[in-house]
Amino acid sequence: MTASIDRERLAALKAREDADFVARHPRSRELFERAQAHMLDGVPMNWMTRWSSPFPPYVAEAHGARFTCIDGHEYIDFCLGDTGAMTGHSPDASVRAIAEQAARGITTMLPTEDSLWVAAELSRRFGLQYWQLALTATDANRFAVRLARHVTKRPRILVYNYCYHGSVDETIITINDGVPGSKPGNAGPPVDPTVTSKVIEWNDLAALQEALAPGDVACVLAEPALTNIGIILPDEGYHAELRRLTRETGTLLIIDETHTICAGPGGCTQAWGLEPDMVTLGKPIGSGVPAAVYGFGQAVADRIRAGWDYHAADECGVGGTLAGNMLSIAAVRATLGEVLTDEAYARMIPLAGRWADGVQAVIDEFALPWVVKRLGCRAEYWPRPVPPRNGGEAAAAEDEELDRYLHLFMLNRGILMTPFHNMALMAPQTTTADVDRHTELLREAARTLTG
Fold first, then answer.
1. Which end of the chain is more exposed for a tag (fewer CB within 10 A), N or C?
2. 290 to each of 126, 392, 419, how far by Cα in Å?
3. Residue 1: inside a domain, yes or no?
C-alpha cells in the first residue's frame, strides 16, 4: 500500500486536512502564536511538536476517555497521554484521594501508611518483595541501572535497538547501518553511549549471547515487548532464553513495564510468568500525578545492603527529595486499588480486541498490505505486510507522511491517536461506540487513499 500511494494525492489530502484544522481552531492558533514568545517552539515540552496538526489543540478539560479543546470540540482520546492517562482522565476515585491528601499535606520526606499498602500491592502483582518510589519511569530506570552496577561491579548495560526507557542517557543508543552509536537527535550526550551500553536487536538470541559472554554487563534493561517503535512481541521462547542467559552470566534482568502494564494488572511479568530481578513502572500508576516505582527481590536487596554507605544515602545518585511524597503515594494507592483493577482490565482488553478486529476488517476490505498488532488493551496498525520482529525492521517500515495524514484525518473528526504511531490505548471509560467510531473513520480514510 505505502509503495503504491500517490504521494501528490497524499500531500493534497494532508493540505486539505491542515486547512480544516486551522479553520476550526482559532483560539488554539492564537495561544500557540502567543506561546512562541516564551516557550521553545511554542510548547511547554518538546514532544508536543510531534502532533500531526499545524499546531496542537489546547485542552480546556479532560474527563474519562474524552477531552475538550478550548475551541469547543470534543475528542475521543485513544492516546491517553501516551499511557500517562491510561486510567482515563481524572478518575473519580483518584480525584477524591488526591484532593483529600492535598488538604492534609503534600510532601514531608516522611512515610505514610499508604506506602505500606502500595508496596504490598506491587509485590502481589509483580512477585518482587521490595519497592521504592520515584517520580518518573526515567528516574525509576536510572536508579535501577545504578543499583545494578552497584551490586554487580560491572560497567555496562544492554538495551534493545529502538527501545524506550525515558531519557536515561545510557539507553539513547541505536544501531546505525549495523554499527552501534548515539541515536539520531540525542541532545548533548554526556559521553558516547557505546562506552556505557551495548545495543542489540530484539529477538536476536545469538546477539544476546555474544553481548553477555564477556561478563561486563551489569543488567539487561528491557521492555517485555517493544512498544515505542510499535508493538513488537517476543518470539516464542525468547523470554525463557533471555532469563537463562542472564542468570548464566550473572547479569541482572530489569523489566520496564511502563507501557506494557497494558497487558494486565501485573503487566507482562504477571501475564507471561516472567521472573525479572527488578521491575520498573511509571506513567499511569498515579492517575496522572507524577509517580513511578522500582522493585527487586531478596537476593538483590541483600546485595544492595552489603555495600551500602548509610552516610551517603542522600548523595548516591539514587532518590529525590519529592520521591515518595504523600500526594503521589495517595494517588498510586487509589489507582491500583480502585482504577486499574482486575475488573477494569476485563473491560479494556476485549475493547482493544474489538478495535483490532475493526482495523483488520478495513485492511481486508481495501486489500491493504498492513498488519494490526495488539498487546492487552493497546493495539496499532502498521503499513507493512508482515509484522516487524525487531526495532530496525519497525523503523524501516515507518511512513511519516501517511501516519501524519491518518492522524490528522482522525483528529479533524474527533479522535486523538498517539502521535508517534497508529496506536490506540483503551481506558476503563472507553466504550464500544468509541471503538466503532474509529473503525468507521479508518474506513473513510482508506477510501480517500484508494478511491
1. C
2. 21, 32, 21
3. no
What would the pLDDT profile of 272-303 be if each residue is shown by its tens digit? 999 999 999 999 999 999 999 999 999 999 99
Q: Encode pLDDT of 215-231 as tens digits.
A: 999 999 999 999 999 99
Strand, helix or coil for residue 429: coil
Q: Are residues 117 and 217 in the same domain?
A: yes
Cell numbers linked to 20: 480544516
Q: Can you give the CATH number for the domain in which 43 is found?
A: 3.90.1150.10
CB distance 322 to 370 below 8 Å: no
* Cell, residue 10: 497524499
What's the pLDDT at 1? 42
Q: Report angle CA 254, 323, 123 to the nearest 5 degrees.
A: 45
Q: Can you say whether residue 344 is alpha, beta or left, with left for phi > 0 and alpha for psi between -120 and 50 degrees? A: alpha
pLDDT (average), residues 363-382: 96
Percent over 90 (pLDDT), the chain: 92
Q: Is residue 267 part of a domain?
A: yes
CA distance linking residue 255 with residue 238, whole number of Å: 14
Please indicate, yes or no, if residue 128 is contained in any of the structural domains. Answer: yes
CA distance 367 to 449: 12
Q: In Å, how far are 82, 219, 257, 404, 439 from 282, measured between CA atoms?
A: 12, 19, 8, 28, 30
Kindly report the CATH number assigned to the domain that includes residue 191: 3.40.640.10
Please answer whether residues 54 and 21 qualify as being in contact, where contact means their C-beta atoms are separated by less than 8 angstroms.
Answer: yes
Instruction: Report the domain count for the chain.
Output: 2
Asked if residue 202 and residue 311 are part of one domain, the reply reads yes
As a whole number, mean pLDDT of residues 163-173 equals 96
Domain termination site, one of 278, 304, 339: 339
Q: Distance between CA atoms of 17 and 196, rounded to whole angstroms?
A: 45
Residues 298 and 155 in one domain: yes
Q: Are residues 122 and 248 in the same domain?
A: yes
Q: Are residues 443 and 416 in the same domain?
A: yes
Chain-centre distance for alpha carbon 415: 19
pLDDT interval class at 420 (50, 70, 90): confident
Whether the pTM exceeds 0.85: the reply is: yes
Q: 178: pLDDT confidence band, cut at 50, 70 and 90?
A: very high
Q: Which domain holds residue 375?
A: 7-86+342-450
State the sign of the Cα–Cα–Cα–Cα dihedral 271, 119, 226, 177.
negative
> Could you give the CA distance from residue 311 to residue 75 in angstroms, rounded to a whole number?
52
At a CB cut-off of 8 Å and minimum separation 6, what does 186 contact? 172, 193
